[in-house]
Structures are given as structure tokens and as C-alpha cells.
Amino acid sequence: METLLLEKSPKYNRLINVLAVAIPLVVAVLLGIRQKVDLGEWTKILPHVNGVINTLTALLLLMGLYFIRQKNITAHRRTMTLAFVLGSLFLVSYVLYHLSNDSTAFGGNGLIRPIYYFLLVSHIVLSVVVVWFVLRAIYFAYSNQIAEHRKAVKWAFPIWLYVSVTGVIVYLLISPYYS
User: Fold this and answer.
1) CA distance linking residue 113 with residue 116, whole number of Å
2) What are the φ and ψ backbone dihedral angles of 36, each rounded to 5 degrees?
3) Domain range for residue 78?
4) Rounded distance, CA 17 to CA 70, Å?
5) CA-based diameter of the chain, in Å?
6) Is residue 104 scored above 50 in pLDDT?
7) Using CA atoms, how far apart are residues 174 and 159, in angstroms rounded to an integer?
């Protein structure tokens, strides 16, 4: 199997920096649109799809860690690439849902309420931060800059795993309140 290799170039670093700022900004703008777009009833299943995507992403991240520790670079690369693809699909699905549906209010009371909001806020903040790290890790891996890849992954992996796992927990906590 042939492997995709990117050239080592400063233009990719600039592109990563632009995307790491543009993606969260575009998502924020799209989510800020108050007039919802009617994309159909099928969009009601997207939160559940996103819960599955976050679960699979977390599992793939752990599998990727396992494979690299076993020095199985091919399996690691495939697993992490799939995690990246799922993360991208999550982003599209998340935006489509929020463009076409009102946000769901959390109905829990007591101690679970501040726990839910802590997880939600930390999930959102870190999901913005992780974009830059993940894009760099992917670029460094595919441009065969392994030392730089390892440096990026020291930050990307734990943040990405936290975002994926808290995404699942937040989904499980709010799912009873979807109409």
C-alpha cells in the first residue's frame, strides 16, 4: 500500500494556523444564526450520530496509542487517520444539526447540573484548542517529521481524547432531553 506523503513546507504551517482559527470562527458564526434552516426531520438523529462518532473516535485514539506502542506504524497511521476523518464528519454533522435545530436545554437538577456544565464548557473550549494540535500532528506525520509529530501529539492526544470522551458523557447526560 502506498502512503501519502506531504512535502515539508512553511505554507502548510500557515494553512494549519489559518484553519485552526477559521474553523472555530466559522462554526461560531454558523451556530450564532438564530433563523434555523429547514433541512428536514432527519437532522433530529444527528446528536445520536455524533454520540456514536465521539465514541468511535475515543476508541480509535486508544487503539492508535496501542498500535504505536506495539510499533505497528501502519495500523497506527490508519487508525489515527480514521479518527481524523470521523472528527471531520462530526464537525459537519454538528453544524448541520445546530443550523437546523434549536439547542436542547439541560434539564438535570442538583449536583449533576454543575458537573454537566463543567464538562460541556471544558469540552467546547478544548475542542477549539485541539484543532491546531491535531492539524499539526497529522501534517507532521504525513510529511514524515516524526520528531515534530511526537511533540505535537504530546498535547494533541490527551486533549483530543478528553474532548471525545467528554463529548460522549455530555451526550449521554443531555440525550434524555432531546424532543
Assistant:
1) 5
2) -80, 145
3) 40-177
4) 32
5) 55
6) yes
7) 22
